[in-house]
Write a structure and sequence with these properties.
This protein is mainly alpha-helical and about 350 residues long. It has 14 helices and 7 strands. Helix 1 packs across helix 3. InterPro entries: DUF247_pln.
């Protein structure tokens, strides 16, 4: 019985802390009863001391990111209802606003998850990690038939580059033309010649967040889906070497402040270890059509030859001018040879 009371006490303390820290509950403090009974009033701005930035990062990491440190959200919501009887706003509204601002600040997502049947209300999450996961949904799920080549590994960024693929940073902005809503919005344009990828800003917490979101999908793929796992597999194989990370950094697809590109590549290489994922399943892999488009271009010899010619000769203007001059000289020589043969065969003409 003591263990049960201790467990319930921990739930109460954790839920209360979440409401105060992330749900704006500090702005709804009860005063002494007035003539009209109990009332809720806002606290004075600046009453609380500012939280140290490093402590704030640690709090977000431990409460939002860690899969093993989650409290069921219905517990938080029920305590909120019992604490603020005259408050009609669900706890999920304020906490969802915090999660939205958190992901917008880290530039991982600008999306706002909504219910299909009630667009004005946010959906009910299972826990705070699930609330973050709801913001990671591709704008358009590309359709892909079951036919075609079986989906294998993604090529590295350098392999795609030498096959003529151009990498382009896709803006994370719903109001901009062609903008993305989250980092999962990867698309191919230009008949497979351009791969548009939203910028991934990497810091010390990026890997922890991605791994725990993948763990959420791995534990319940029917409810959470596998979109983020598909994205992590894509990035881990695309940026698996230091030269890949360097190329993607130059194109603005990756921004990081770690020690070197090799360190980032090692983190990417280790990102999906132990993950169970069927890349050839169109239901699990929302990037299946993107892989097939890039694979067709990669296996096209004319495209590879043109890409090699462009990078070898047309990257340097002097080499390009020399190639054009040599081509013109060759054409003139061929024409001269043709006329010489015709003059020999038909001397009267």
């Amino acid at each position: 019985m003591g263990d049960l009371h201790g467990f319930l006490r921990r739930l109460l303390l954790d839920a209360s802390y979440i409401l105060v820290r992330f749900g704006d509950a500090v702005w709804h403090r009860r005063e002494a009863p007035a003539e009209g009974g109990n009332r809720v009033v806002p606290s004075v701005e600046g009453e609380e001391s500012a939280v140290d930035q490093l402590e704030a990062v640690a709090v977000v990491r431990d409460v939002f990111y860690l899969a093993e440190n989650q409290i069921p959200f219905f517990v938080v919501d029920k305590i909120h209802q019992l604490t603020f009887l005259d408050c009609n706003t669900p706890a999920v509204h304020a906490i969802a606003r915090y999660a939205h601002d958190l992901l917008r600040g880290t530039e991982y997502s600008v999306a706002t998850p909504t219910k299909v049947e009630e667009p004005e209300r946010p959906p009910e999450p299972a826990n705070l990690l699930h609330l973050l996961h709801m913001h990671f949904t591709p704008t358009v799920l590309t359709s892909s038939s079951g036919g075609g080549r079986p989906v294998g590994r993604w090529r590295t960024a350098m392999e795609y580059y030498f096959a003529g693929v151009t990498f382009k940073k896709r803006p994370l902005n719903l109001s901009a033309k062609g903008g993305a809503r989250c980092i999962l919005d990867v698309k191919v344009s230009g008949s497979g010649g351009t791969l548009e990828v939203p910028q991934l800003r990497i810091d010390g917490e990026t890997w922890r967040l991605l791994r725990n979101l993948m763990a959420l999908e791995q534990s319940n793929p029917m409810a959470a889906g596998t979109h983020l796992t598909a994205y992590c597999v894509f990035m881990s194989q695309l940026a698996s070497t230091a030269t890949d990370v360097e190329l993607l950094s130059r194109r603005g697809v990756i921004v990081h402040g770690l020690g070197n590109n090799g360190e980032v590549a090692k983190h990417f290489a280790d990102l999906c270890k132990g993950a169970v994922f069927d890349a050839d399943d169109a239901e699990q892999n929302y990037l299946r059509a993107v892989w097939q488009t890039l694979d067709r271009g990669f296996r096209s010899r004319p495209r590879r030859w043109m890409a090699w010619l462009k990078k070898k000769y047309f990257a340097n203007p002097w080499l390009a001018a020399g190639l054009v001059a040599a081509t013109v000289g060759l054409v003139c020589t061929v024409i001269q040879a043709v006329y010489s043969v015709l003059g020999y065969l038909k001397p009267g003409n």
